[in-house]
């Protein structure tokens, strides 16, 4: 099981770069949430956590500490560039460290896949002394996905198609770098999903509180209503997967940090 820690740059009081009516913190979160869904729904033997799943402030120390405590296999920090320019670039730490060659290999695979998939101008594979690259104990890569202050690139950033394309390109690069196979679930109903329910509450307020607590642990979730006769329950969904094994892996992860969950199937 490969553990991927996804870090949407900035958030909360830290908006990051801005331009053309867009803010970096929103774009990075949308890419990260889509990437999280793609990896969990379409690939086997992979599990993920996010440094944030909502528009909240998370310190750099919190981000790296969470990844280190989880013993992640890979740390990905997603950003959007500014300052005049165009295209894509990526970074690893510029210091000397034991897994630098492995980090270079992983970065090369991810970088080249993204440039090819998005057809971006390649601004190069770079190194820098960023905290999230320096203080992580696993291979770490930071990606800069286009320029928010470039009117042409900003126009693309407004579309869901762009968000999806960038997220999927990251997913393909990660999968290739770590040898993660696409899901081969042989379910006769291809539109069957398995939801991990981490709490079923009689009040929506309690469900929202559970969502908040889960987000602090790096898990994205959403609330659905479940009707049982005249009663309504608010279920907190912490993952929706095509592959039941991935759903069970998420269930076990949550149990290990104190959250009991159950799995339900549904068809779309």
TrEMBL record:
Gene3D superfamilies with a match to the protein in the record? Sporulation related repeat (3.30.70.1070), Zn-dependent exopeptidases (3.40.630.40)
Positions the record marks as coiled coil are none
**Which residues are in the SPOR domain?**
188-266
Q: Does the keyword Ligase apply?
A: no
Q: For this protein, what is any one GO molecular function term?
A: N-acetylmuramoyl-L-alanine amidase activity
Q: Which SUPFAM superfamilies match?
A: Sporulation related repeat, Zn-dependent exopeptidases
Q: Which UniProt keywords apply?
A: Hydrolase
What is one Gene Ontology biological process annotated in the Swiss-Prot or TrEMBL record? peptidoglycan catabolic process
Q: Which SMART domains match?
A: Ami_3
How is this protein named in the record? N-acetylmuramoyl-L-alanine amidase
């Amino acid at each position: 099981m490969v553990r991927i820690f996804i870090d949407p740059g900035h958030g909360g009081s830290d908006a990051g770069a801005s331009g053309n009516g867009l803010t970096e913190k929103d774009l990075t979160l949308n890419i990260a949430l889509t990437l999280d869904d793609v990896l969990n729904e379409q690939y086997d033997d992979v599990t993920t956590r996010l440094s944030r799943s909502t528009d909240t402030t998370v310190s750099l120390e919190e981000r790296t500490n969470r990844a280190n405590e989880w013993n992640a296999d890979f740390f990905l920090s997603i950003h959007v560039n500014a300052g005049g320019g165009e295209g894509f670039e990526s970074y690893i730490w510029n210091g000397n460290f034991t897994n630098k060659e492995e980090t270079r290999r992983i970065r090369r695979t991810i970088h080249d896949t993204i440039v090819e998939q998005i057809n971006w101008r390649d601004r190069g594979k770079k190194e820098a002394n960023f905290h999230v690259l320096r203080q992580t104990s696993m291979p770490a890569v930071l990606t800069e996905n286009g320029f928010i202050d470039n009117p042409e690139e900003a126009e693309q950033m407004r579309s869901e198609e762009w968000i999806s394309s960038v997220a999927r390109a990251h997913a393909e690069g990660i999968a290739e770098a770590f040898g993660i196979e696409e899901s081969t679930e042989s379910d006769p109903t291809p539109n069957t999903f398995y939801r991990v329910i981490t709490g079923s509450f009689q009040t929506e307020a309690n469900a929202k509180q559970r969502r908040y607590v889960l987000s602090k642990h790096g898990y994205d979730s959403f609330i659905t209503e479940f009707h049982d006769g005249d009663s309504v329950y608010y279920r907190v969904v912490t993952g929706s997967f095509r592959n039941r094994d991935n759903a069970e892996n998420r269930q076990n992860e949550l149990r290990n940090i104190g959250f009991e969950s159950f799995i339900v199937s549904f068809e779309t």
